[in-house]
Amino acid sequence: MNRERTADIRERISALGREVRHRAVPVLFGDRVGLTLFLGVIASLAALWRVGFFITDTYAIANTVINLSEGRLNIAHIEYSLTLGSQPGLYRHGGQVFGRNYGQAALALPFYWLLEGASVIAELRLVLAGAWSLLVAGFASQLGRVLDRSRVTLVGTLLALGLFVANVRLSTPLDPRWNGLLALQLLSLLAAGVVAVAIYRLGCEFHGRRVGLAGGLLAPLALPIAFWATIPKRHVMSAALVAVVVFAFGRSRNADQTLPSRALAYAAVGVLAWLHAAEALVVLVVLVPFDLVTAQRNGVRELMAVGAVFVLSLLPFGLTNLLITGSPFTPPRMLWKVGNIAELGPGGDVIVDTGGESAPTPEGTTTPAETTTPGAPGDTQAPGPGMWSRITGLLGGAIGLVAGVVSTTIGFLNAVLTAVIVGVEVTIARLGELWGYATEGINIVFGDIGRFSHVILRSGHIPGVQYGINDQEAIELTVLEVAPMLGTLIAIPIVLGKRGLESGRERLPEQLAAIRSTPRYQTDLFAGTLVVAFTLLFLPQLPLYSQITMRYLVPIMPVAIYGVMRLPAVRRSLRTDIRQFLDAYLGASVAGVAGVTVAFVALDPAIGEAMQFHALLNLAVAGVVALVVVVDTVLDRDLPVGAAIGAAGGAGTTLYVLAGIEYFTYGEFALPVAEWLSAMIPVF
User: Fold this and answer.
1) Secondary structure element (H or E) that encloses residue 351, with its range
2) 306 vs 424, which has greater pLDDT?
3) What average pLDDT does this structure show over 334-354?
């Protein structure tokens, strides 16, 4: 009987699991291909995972995670770094020290608690190695199902098992004190997977799986997303949220049930505000007019639902600001920097110099008034109240209660109205600041071509950039030097001009009407405007040291990949033969890593020389792939566009693989096998 019950319970649990998977995969990943892509991207990027601090900004965010886990918003204890001066991103307010990017730190907490629990049970490095091997096995299992080849599943599972055994044999202990940093890195890896899925689903929405798969592969593996995936700055998370916004916008124009996707776009903006308010404001400014103008319905129900979701998504942002700065509209990064008012005490505790401030003393006496006990001996009792007095007392109490409720309601409404007014004023002020940045960006584009070219086209030794922080090494690359496939975007004006000539002047009104009513054209305009607005926002700050890959522009690079996939020559080639693209991408990646490694072993370059070699190589690749796409677009020739795009992606991946293994050797690898591989490549 017990065995039958146990079997029945197991069957029910198994059925429930199948039902959850059946429902979750379409919602989260679109289909099994999306799930496979997600697992493969995270497994690939995690293979190059280093445990350490590449950039000093990360110290403050990692210490914020530790302090949040202990139940406080302020930074009272420093787990990482020896001095506060080495931590950009710390601010002071009310005699306390605070961090920034609280959204990123808060979302990393579940990973921190998971790591803390796992490190109690087993050695931390073995936990990471086991989790990675399970990820590889899961990817192999899903890939085998997608390809309908059980041998792929078998080989992949055996490979995962072999890698785990190798990691165990090579393993050295990893201190659990790294859990705060590891949690941020896990969150960033997850965000890279979200980028892949969002771009994949966006491509599938309009052009099918093949186009979506190409975009989903290139976005996380051939763009700087691959470089920053395990360096927990905000940029990969921002890229994931921006990609979700664009995907949700496109789906809401194209789906039968538009409201969920439309609400998702605004929810992603709210989470982005928790991460970086300025970036969220730019996205919101572009999203709102496009959404209202192109939405299928703008009824009261739809607008109220979208507004409610947006307000709810802003609650963590507003509440965090309120608790730290006293205003829901003032994020911590707008406070004064710590400066010299704080120092580290014994054990890493933060000691704040308040400058002799003392707590205010209440006015008047602080001695409690004396009380007497009614009915004590010797007291004279007053006669009890009469009936009329009781009635008037009750009426007075009721009137007082009503008056109190009315007063409280008026006070609440007044507070809400004040908050709305202040919010509008702050938003207008921020919009004014953004417009100032955008105006300055426009002036740079049209009035300072040299500076603009050092952001988009060619780096070298850029005038005005402080190379001293990098030992005079020219490691700051431009957009095309880190993402050569984006050079194909030069074909966009040619595509538009060709369509205009083919349609004729008399059909121009019909073309404009089609743009307003066609979901893919609406998404094109939204994505293009977003890329331009985001670029103009950060252009006045660029070029800048410690960018490496123009990291301020990383959040909109996956959206630009969507633009590449929308080019007629590209999507026609991918639809015809996706194998051509995949073979070119994998071949260029493998050959690129091997060829550059052999060349550098012979040449023995410095890090700056190595990065500039990749810069020139990627510029050459960008020129070739752009030429192929332009010629195919103009002449309608059946050129190998897919192979060209794949090769360009392989050139980008080559840079990020070698940068992760050899060029930037900070910390230690999370996986011992990667450490062994790095030691086997004697480039530097």
Assistant:
1) strand 350-352
2) 306
3) 68
Contacts of 389 (CB under 8 A, 6+ apart): none
Q: Give me 312's structure tokens.
A: 């709810």
CB atoms < 10 A from the CB of 638, how many? 11
Are the C-beta atoms of 675 and 638 separated by less than 8 Å?
A: no
Question: How far from chain centre, in Å, is Cα 109?
Answer: 16
Strands, E, within 66-171: which ranges? Answer: 91-93, 96-98
Cβ-proximal residues to 509 (8 Å cutoff; 6+ apart), any chain: none
Helix, strand, or coil here: 386?
coil
In degrees, to the nearest 5, what angle opens at C-alpha 441 toward C-alphas 438 and 447? 140
Q: In what order do the strands lie in the sheet with 96-98?
A: 96-98, 91-93, 336-337
615 vs 482: CA distance, rounded Å: 7
* Structure tokens that stand for 652 in this block: 């980008």
377 membership: H or E segment, kind and range = none
Structure tokens at 379: 């007291």
Contact 100, 88 (CB under 8 A): no
Give the separation between CA 146 and CA 137, rounded to whole angstroms: 14
Phi–psi pair at 250, nearest 5 degrees: -60, -40
* DSSP conformation class of 155: H
Model confidence over 405-443: pLDDT tens digits? 555 555 545 545 555 565 566 667 667 777 777 788 888
Between CA 400 and CA 303 the distance in angstroms is 40
Predicted local confidence at residue 380, as pLDDT = 38
> What pTM was computed for the model?
0.87
CA atoms of 562 and 652, how far apart (whole Å): 17
